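Figure S4 source data
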Amino acid sequence: MKLTTLIARRYLFSRKKITLISTLTVISIAGVTVGTALLIVVLSVFNGLFDLIKESILAHDPDIRIESAEGQAMRLNQHQMNFISNHPEIEFYSPFVEGKALIAHRGGIYKVAMVRGVEETVFETILDLNVEFAGLPYDLSVREGRPGLLIGRNLMNQMGMRTGDEIALLSAQAIQRSLTQFSGPRTLNFHIRGTYIMDQMHDDSVIFVQKEAAQRLFNMRNAISGIDIQLHDHDRAEAVKQLFMQELGDAFLVRTWYDLQKPLYDVMNLEKWGAFLILMIIVLVAAFNIVGSLTMIVVQKTRDIALLRSIGMTTIKVREIFFRQGLIIGLIGCGAGGFLGFLLCWLQDSFGLVKLAGAEAFVISAYPVSVVFTDVLLIMGGSLMLCLMASLYPAYRASSIKISEALRFE
């Protein structure tokens, strides 16, 4: 063991008796321990909530969505379609047509809803819907002269509709034409083939129809509103987005799953790192306590430091003694805090000790936790850095002690 480390340990922990300095040292270690443990637990809870919401949103959002940059109907040429269909990182893609329409039901009930035209064979793999068809076949195509549609359970109940009913859809463009051209609006009649249920985090007022039916409804012919893309690895979405932007050009808007819900994700990240900065204050307070305890050691051991200097110890070695004291406090506090934080996270994950308020109306009953290795490294590194910085002033003061003045009255 190095001499500086041996002296640092001896100054911190007295074996003979409990002194004020050793008490302050224990308090400093406890502060670093509590702060580190709390940081690990709180950031792990934020990570768990982020993963939960992300998983729920990704069940209804694509990894990448391509739309027209001008917000209009878009058309892709054959080369662009081949690029999308042959891209090795794409698992599948689904063109869609989307717009707002007025729902008209018997009894004079009207309501505006979003109508989304999809390809039946693909959209189920992108959207995780709890679909009920009440014995009818899963088919949105034209049957008995009427195309089918899939409607949200809540919206159907609000309008007093049932599976098998016929409803009329009127697009906003058709209403505008009827007002400007003084002609009757063109409506399309649909059969309700089934209902679906989504969790409370998502809007279930979207009506799903076949893509061709939506093109007729919105008078879009062969155009589409966009393309939803599912990747083999959704973490590669940003890299694939850059490739698409280079290939498709500025005429198209390419957004990832993060971009689609960016305000929500940004708020969650802001809350997470805001909590990190606030909880680091606990470690900062412990660091100020380290400054006080190490400064008291310098004052108490002035004679010892002078003797060490007189027998040949350099000022650099004297500084190293107090740097190592800060390092020892930091390592013990971070190690104990890391163990305590991991233990609390494991207990919460295994037994759900802290329950969510109103959990009966949510998808989980207790706070989720997800320990991220990079977050732990940041917490441990930040706490250790504060402990080392706290030893700067005591180390400088110890190295500036003059031998003649310290031993004058000895």
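Figure S5 source data
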Amino acid sequence: MQTDMMQPEFQTRTVKVGNINIGGPEFTVIAGPCSIESREHFQQTSTAVKKAGAHLVRAGIWKLRTSAEAFQGLGSDAFDLIKEVKKETGMPLVSEITDPRQIEEVYDFVDMFQIGSRNMHNYSLLKEVGKIKKPILLKRGFAALIDEWIKATEYIRMGGNDNIVLCERGIRTFETATRNTLDLNAVVYVKARTQLPVIVDPSHAIGLREFVPQLTYASAASGADGVIVEVHPQPDKAMSDGRQSLNFSDFEKMMLQLDKILNALGRPLQKI
């Protein structure tokens, strides 16, 4: 068998976030806490994931929670500490916005705006982020068809912003053993039918930290352009999504194994 027949063809559009390219021949890892809890927490986590090989840090400023009594994020109280930690680590930041009014508030220090699963159908918000050139990470709605997910990007692109990365984060099915059901069919399908980069969120897909590494490896093998993983110094004490967050040691081990798998696939981790 000719080895060149086994090599993937990378026709995916590349989206630049800070100094990092998502899409193309190399794999990208985004990692960090579900939400920022304090300056020390954010600094410690950002430093740890960077040391382990992550390319961008994820961290929530505002959090949409099912329970109104759950931790909703630090909001504007996090702005100054984010700027300080970013200056120290040099890590580009991916963070969710939940309201068009937040765009201007965080525009100068958030490098990529995440549109969460609950807001995939929020067309007013999609239109607003379409008016800017900031890269957008668009998560699939937990009950959205693949076609609806792809068409949601049109609301962004019609405003002139085509810096879009899709994120498969699991969908709601009849199965209750895990938080959601990871749909790798969607990754393969979207990669074949569009030029959009696609990453996977294994943390939200399964909701159980002990299985996050395996889903990460499967995502890489399916042809995803990267993953976004939740990491916390003490997951059992996390103020949000602790059950699905890796600790620093487990994240480091996952990254080492992921590097081996990617090399075997002929698609190495992106070099910083």
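Strands lie at 15-17, 20-22, 28-32, 56-58, 93-96, 112-115, 136-139, 164-168, 198-200, 226-230. The chain has one domain: 10-263.
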